[in-house]
Amino acid sequence: MKSLLSFALTGAALILPLPAAQAADAFAACLAQLRAPALKAGVSGAAFDTHTANLAPDMAVIDLLDAQPEFKTPIWDYMAGLVDDERVADGRAGMARWQAELDRAAKQYGVDPATIAAVWGVESNFGRTLGGRPLLTSLSTLSCFGRRQAYFRGEFFATLKIIQDEHIAPERLAGSWAGAFGQTQFMPSTYLRLAVDFDGDGRRDLVDSVPDALASTANFLKRAGWNPALAWGYEVKLPAGLDTAGAGRKNKRPMSSWVRQGVVRADGQALPAGETPAGLMLPAGRSGPAFLVTRNFDALYSYNAAESYALAIAHLSDRLRGGGPLVQAWPTDDPGLSRAQRRELQRLLIARGHDVGEPDGMIGARTRQALQAAQRELGLPPDGRAGMKALQALKASAAPTAAN
Ligand code: CA
């Protein structure tokens, strides 16, 4: 859940690293102190002893905890990578493959299949990207070092309870550095509260069971207040001169009052009049796309506490229902890239002799550094941003050799 927003972070440590031996001693002493509170939280002594016996701290997660974004991702980059044709095609295939389970979950939890699939697609790329850090290692480290130790101790104890009571093997519990795991990227405490067994095997398995993951997502949204009678919201067009001082997701007014002021749906269809509370969201200001969002948008927001994140899920769900791209362009002359375009940009950098690792479509520090170097070579401002202009410049410079 929290994993998503950390993709752009680097490992710039803000604390001085402890020497390894000193960290190991402090860690052992800390674990010994955690035994009593773990038992109080419901972990058995045997489970605690067995599953902490061979733990060693991974100080890299402390660096990630303290990392500052070196680069602010514009919303158009964020949306272009999360809602691209590839994810829409993968989502439609997933919805066809799991149609019976999605229909059953929709009936039981009141959340429609496209919304469930959109969360699945944004959280874990439909189960393809689960994160590879062992939860016990990350969460025990975060319980003993760094900020927010009290929070992470709760998640560490929850992980031990999952292993003990839910019979998920520790080696299957890997995820983001902060402990979000499985196809839904739930935190361990969220798992304990909200995961459900939907394939009937008696286990709540968000790692290896797609039906359990889909139904657990639906259960999360239902518990977050999802209303089956409401849309998440709509892209809208604002009349000239509309006062947008009262914009904001939380600043909800009856849909009818927006209609009266001349707000219309961007696709030309009628907005539902009526008293449904809706807030006006302008993620890139007055000249970018505008949205009226309902309380269902807030339910999506509660999954990861970021409006851009909730908007990616909302828009992907519309695309999975057959809707088109956003009507209003983002206010930029340098749009964001799909993952296919990001891979193309990486291949072009590799062809120029730069090291970006695998062309995986993920724009990390290495790709940015390589792009900055290429931008310098091409006489362009070296901002390292993988946008449309950078891709076009690389393509143009590669064209003579590519044609041979
Ligand atoms: Ca199950």
Description:
The chain is mainly alpha-helical. Among the domains are: 4-66 and 136-181, Bacterial muramidase (Helicase, Ruva Protein, domain 3), CATH 1.10.8.350; 339-403. The protein is 49% helix and 5% strand. The strands form two sheets. It has a five-stranded antiparallel beta sheet with strand order 4-6-7-3-5. It has a two-stranded antiparallel sheet with strand order 1-2. A hairpin with an 8-residue loop joins β6 and β7 (290-293). α13 (295-304) crosses α14. The longest helix has 21 residues, at 20-40. Mean pLDDT is 92; it is low at 2-14. The structure holds calcium ion (CA). Calcium ion binds at residues 197, 199, 201, 203-205, 209, 212.
Oligomeric description of these chains: single chain
Strand order of the largest sheet: 4-6-7-3-5
Q: In CATH, what is the class of the domain at 4-66 and 136-181?
A: Mainly Alpha
What portion of residues is helical? 40-55%
State the separation between the terminal residues, measured CA to CA.
47 Å
Uncertain runs are 2-14
Which ligands appear in the coordinates? calcium ion
Corresponding CATH architecture of the domain at 4-66 and 136-181: Orthogonal Bundle
Q: What average pLDDT do the residues reach?
A: 92
CATH topology of the domain at 4-66 and 136-181: Helicase, Ruva Protein, domain 3
Major beta sheet, specifics?
5 strands, antiparallel
The 3D shape can be described as globular
Query: How many alpha or pi helices?
Result: 17
Strand content: 5-15%
How are helices and strands ordered from N to C? HHHHHHHEHHEHHEEHEEEHHHHH
User: What is the CA-based Rg, rounded?
Assistant: 23 Å
Report the strand count.
7
| Secondary-structure content class | mainly alpha
CATH homologous superfamily title of the domain at 4-66 and 136-181: Bacterial muramidase
